[in-house]
Every structure is written in C-alpha cells, then in structure tokens.
Amino acid sequence: MISLCLSFLAAAALTMAAGAGLVALFAPARLYPPECIALSWLFGSMSVSLGLWLCSFLFHGLALQCAITLLCLSLGTIAFLRRKSHRSIRLTTWDRVLWTLLFVQFVAVFYCSFKHTLGWDGLLNWEFKAHMAYESGGRLPSAYFADHERAFSHPEYPLGIPNLELWFYLWLGEANQFWIKAIFPLFYVAGTLLLVSLIERFSQRRILALISGLLFFFVPQFLVNPGAAVTGYADFPLAIFYLGAIGFLILGDQDQEWFRLAVFFLTFLPWLKREGIVLWSAGTICAFLFRRGRSLGKTIFGVSGGLLVFLCWETYLLANHFAASDFGAVKLENSNRLLPTLLALVRDLFDVQSWSLLWYGAIAGLLILFRQSNFQRGLVLLLAIAIPLSFDVFVYLFSAWPDYLRHVDLSLSRLVMQVAPVAFLLTSCAAAIVVPDPAKTRTAGVGSDPSGSLSRGEEPAV
Predict the structure, then answer these.
(1) Quick check: helix, strand or coil at residue 359?
(2) Separation between Cα atoms, residue 63 and residue 138, nearest integer Å
(3) pLDDT truncated to tens, each residue of the chain (462 aa)?
(4) 399 pairs with which residues across the strands?
(5) Cα 344 from Cα 334, distance rounded (Å)
(6) By three-state DSSP, how is residue 246 classified?
(7) Cα–Cα distance, 126 to 273 (Å, whole number)
(8) Which of 95, 97, 224, 398 could potentially form a cystine with 327 if both were Cys, beta carbons 3.0 to 4.6 Å apart?
(9) Residue 327's beta-bridge partner residues?
(10) Which spans in 60-155 are helix H?
C-alpha cells in the first residue's frame, strides 16, 4: 500500500513538474501560487498524455516510461531555473476562513472519489483503453480499432484521459483501478482554483471569487451525476480546459501574454474528447472576435495547434481502418428530431436537481453584462456557451441509435456540463457588478486592495 502511494505521488509530481516547466516558459510573470498549481496540473497532465502517444511510436514499456520521465524532469529543471518571483497573497481573516472551507471541500471530493466507483464510461471507455495499453507495453494494439466487438468502448475517442491513466499505471506497476480514481479530484482542485483565479481577475473581488469557488461544490452535476468529477469521465476535465480557454482569451484583451495560456487550453481540447473539436471551434470563433490588439496571423497561428492535434488523431484512425458507428448521415426525415431535442435541452438546463440555480443565474448574468458591462465580453461569453449547445442539439440529427431520445437522455447532460463552468464564470462576473463592494465603499474609490496596489495599476492577488 505504501509503495503504491509513493509511486502515485511520484507520477503526480513528475506530471506537475512538466506542467510547471510549461508555465515557466509561456505564462506571464505575475501569476499567484494557486494559479501555478492549477496550470501545472492541467498543462502537465495533457502534455504527458500527448507525449506518451507520440513517444509510443518509438519506445515500448520501460523505455517509454523513462522517455516521458526524462521529458518531465527536463521541463521541471526549466521551471526551477526560470522560476519567477510570484506575487504574495495578503490574506485577511475572511480570506483564511474561505480558503479553509475550500480545502475542506477538496478533501471531501477526494473522499467521495475513493468511495465512488468509476462510472460506465470511466470504466468501460477510458480506463479500459488505459488497461489495454498498459498490458500492451504503452500503446493500443492496432487490432483494437478493427474489433467491432469492442465498439462499446469508443475507439474513435482520443487518448487524453486513457494515456494519463496509463502514465500512472506505468509507475504503479499495475492497472490499479482504485488508485487511478485519485487523478480526477485533482482536476476538480485545479478547476476550482482556475475558476477562483479568473473570477478575481475579472472582478477584482477576492472574497467573491472564493465564495464562487465554494458554491461550485454545490452543483450536483459537477460532483455526483454521470460525467461528474469523481466518476472517471472526460467531460469534467474537458469543461475545465474550455473554461481556461475562454477565460484567458478574454484576459488576452487586456494583455497579449494571457493569449499564450489560452492557446494551450485550446490545443488540448481535441485531445481530451471527440467533442473537444466543437469546443475548439467555438473558442476559435471567440478568439477571432476578441482579438483587439492582436494580429490576424498571430491568432491563426495560436489556434492552429488544436486543429493539428485533431487532424493527427483522425489520420491515425484512418491508418487503423476505423469508422465511427454512433452517428450517421443526416436524413431529411430526421428533421423532426430537432424540436424534441431542443425541448430536452431546455428541460436539462433548468433541472434544479442537476444544476441547482446555475442556468437561471447565467441568464440573469447575461442580461446584467449586456446592460451594465462590456458588451463585447458579454457577447464572447454568450457565444462560448451558445455555439456548443447549438451543435449539441443539431448533432442528434446524425444519431444512428434506433431510439435517438435514449441517446439524448444518456449524453446531453454531459455535453451541457462541458460549457457549464463558463456559465458559472459569467454568473460570478455579473454578481460582481450588482453586489456592492464593501472595500470600495469604505475607501471611497481607492480600490478593493487595502495596500492600494490596484490604484497603482497592479493586478489583484489571487
């Protein structure tokens, strides 16, 4: 048990080291520790996963593990040599209380993860691939893609999560389904820290950001429903990467250095799940609409990474003679599916048992942003939500399932979850407009930071 724990921690530490190296190379210097932790895990997890797939064409077994370990150590060394002096966080008493409550929530998520079994997709889709790749020395056998009896495991889905699980299996020395569950709460922790960071940078309200992070815990779809953070699905990590892409695209309007972080999030979207290309497309549209001060060429170059990842994976599938089976051609008679699917989407959005009051708040937040805030920012957030949801409705016209409504019932809520953190960000930003800031009231316009750093043009602490 102790050896497995140490092996898991070693794999996690190397993953974080790889991500920290990327953060040191490409992130702005004014990050705060919570942001660094979140970005290190998110960037490290997908860079290790993508690196495993690319290196599996050259290495096998122990040699593959050593190659990725060397990559992680190299990036970790860069992080150490190029470490930046991060801004310190001045914590008030309320800050300490809220951070403590947030930490308690993180512990609860880990506890729920270990008590909860992997969900259907988490076990028979993502972990199934990781287990098979581990038994094959680090790469899925070509025969797997041509085996129709294994079509239930969606061979067409990319390997973002399976290869991350494979990385931990290589260090554990076995395909251990108990320990592998611990990687998904790490996505929850990173996603919450990222959400808190983005809300504070948008609103300059630390307490509001921390309260929003605490409320994130009380959306059932994020915690306990199918596709939630503790079930082993890819939908929640995909949602967090999409949140990062949209959030840093908007921040890039103020400073182009943030656009580099948005590029990383956009690049990894198609590697997490097949639906990631839809989110990449929505993010790309937002990047072109919201490129104030950024050249067209730089924008095209920045967003092209995700398309390259998608095309490489599709080429790999073609080379292995795979053809997808869940969706077929659109037929004219299938147009009668549109209204029932749209109604199913509306019912899902306003299902309080799944989403609490999130989508009610998102609608109110949009109205507030359009009336009292930056119109362009509200438009980008609206498009970031509306484009994927519109595609989610339309795509069921392609469904090859005999009972397409069964397909809708099983998958629509997880598709909605992929954009839900952006809706949460939108709602919190709108709340910052309508809820008075006590600090500003007391200081009569000096700013919410008692040190006065905001009045000097510095960024708020995260």
Answers:
(1) helix
(2) 10
(3) 788 999 999 999 999 999 999 999 988 877 888 999 999 999 999 999 999 999 999 999 999 999 999 999 999 999 888 876 556 677 889 989 999 999 999 999 999 998 888 888 889 889 999 999 999 999 999 889 888 888 888 899 999 999 999 999 999 999 999 999 999 999 999 999 999 999 999 888 899 999 999 999 999 999 888 788 988 999 999 999 999 999 999 888 767 788 999 999 999 999 999 999 999 999 999 998 887 777 888 889 989 999 999 999 999 998 987 765 556 555 656 778 889 899 999 999 999 999 999 999 999 999 988 887 667 788 889 999 999 999 988 888 877 777 888 888 888 999 999 999 999 999 998 888 888 776 665 544 433 443 333 333 344 433
(4) 327
(5) 16
(6) helix
(7) 10
(8) 398
(9) 399
(10) 62-81, 93-115, 120-121, 128-135, 142-146
Contact 76, 22 (CB under 8 A): no
Question: Distance between CA atoms of 207 and 17, rounded to whole angstroms?
Answer: 30
Number of Cβ atoms within 10 Å of the Cβ of 293: 10
Are 448 and 454 in contact by the 8 Å Cβ rule? The answer is yes
CA dist 247 and 380 (Å) reads 10
d(Cα 427, Cα 370) in Å, to the nearest integer?
13
CA-wise closest residue to 337 among 403, 414, 416? 403
The Cβ of residue 223 has, within 10 Å, a number of other Cβ atoms equal to 21
Do 263 and 145 contact (CB within 8 A), yes or no? Answer: no
Q: 């960037």: which residue's tokens?
A: 43
User: What secondary structure letter does DSSP report for 368?
Assistant: H
> What single letter denotes the amino acid at residue 407?
H
3-state SS assignment for residue 332 = helix
Please state, in angstroms and rounded to a whole number, the distance separating the CA atoms of residues 82 and 335. Answer: 56
Per-residue exposure over 318-345, b if at least 16 CB sit within 10 Å of its own CB, e if not: eeeebeeeeeeeeeeeeeebeeebeebb
Q: Please give the structure tokens belonging to residue 404.
A: 């397409």
- pTM exceeds 0.90: yes
Residue 141 Ramachandran class (φ > 0 left, ψ -120 to 50 alpha, else beta)? beta
Instruction: Give yes or no for a contact between 226 and 119, defined as CB atoms under 8 angstroms apart.
Output: yes
Q: Which helix (H) or strand (E) holds 432?
A: helix 420-434
